[in-house]
Amino acid sequence: MPAESVHLLIKPASGACNMRCGYCFYANLAACGAPTGKIMTEETAERVITRAAETGARRICFAFQGGEPTLAGLAWFRRFAELCKERLPARTEVEFNLQTNGLAMDKDWVRFLAENRFLVGLSLDGTKDIHDALRPDVAGKGTHARVLAVARELMAAGVACNALCVVSALSARHGAAVYNGLKKAGFRHIQFIPCVEDFGGGTSVPPLTAKNYLAFLRAVFPLWYRDLREGNYVSVRYFDNLVHMVSGREPEACGMLGRCPGQLIVESDGKVYPCDFYVLPELCTGDLHVNPLAEIVASPIRQKFCEESLAVHPDCRACPVAPLCRGGCRRDRQESADGPVGKNRYCEAYRTFLAEVLPALCDIRDHMTN
User: Residue 322 in contact with residue 316, Cβ under 8 Å?
Assistant: First the structure.
């Protein structure tokens, strides 16, 4: 039977980037041996598309990430879109997603994204002061004004544009300002991403602690809940998924499943990995130049990676909010790439926050079903 859908997360420019974010986890992966600085060739891009077509999937999503994927160039993306039309059956539903810092965008980029109906996740850390402190360009200059201008152009062109906001120790102290700033900028879909620590611990900026993260969640949730009740709904991915879970549905965010489902992360050389947080030589699950996707999915390395994520910390077994927390993302439960999968570093934040908001989540569920 053909697959219903296939989702490939592609790194066309590998780890190359035109920003120097203080919390960049990919810089740490590069130091651990991840590929960096290579642009995907047309031959490899064609092989990616061909391998996806071989699955017979009715729906294929090509998502592009980095580093900064736009550094592959607009001509590269135009050719990729052309190859999809040439190589994929007409009945195939094709979806394009792009996660970008927006810095290389111009009107030609915006026009291309609109014409090809891309869903864009634009990295923006809330307020100007926070963003500029954490997301400078290679010259050390702030980038908030430039990224915000790109956001306006994308929205004006009708491009579906979501905000990707990293929750750092700095932004955690200003949760209300971050949420309100993104809403004021016009975003109606927001993904808050807890800052990922380097393997070995720490980041080049002060690390996010459980206490910091709890303060952030406590500041943002009431604003989101108020907007929801007043008919001014803003989608916050984490909160939306919690509502799904109390309603008896599975979350769509992989870090909330309680297990790693295993992704298909395609590096610029065509090699594949099970998670974008684990693009490491020892976790390569195949090469699209050699292996069909079915072989890669069945790779023993991939299977072992997914099985390891099933580990449950003893403290979680009796935790009253375990059905909502499920241990959290594996990356927040592991201090080194080859170390044990243990307790989530934000455990106390989740334990306290989820207990506090459970009545509100149930209230939302009940109003949705009545």
Answer: yes
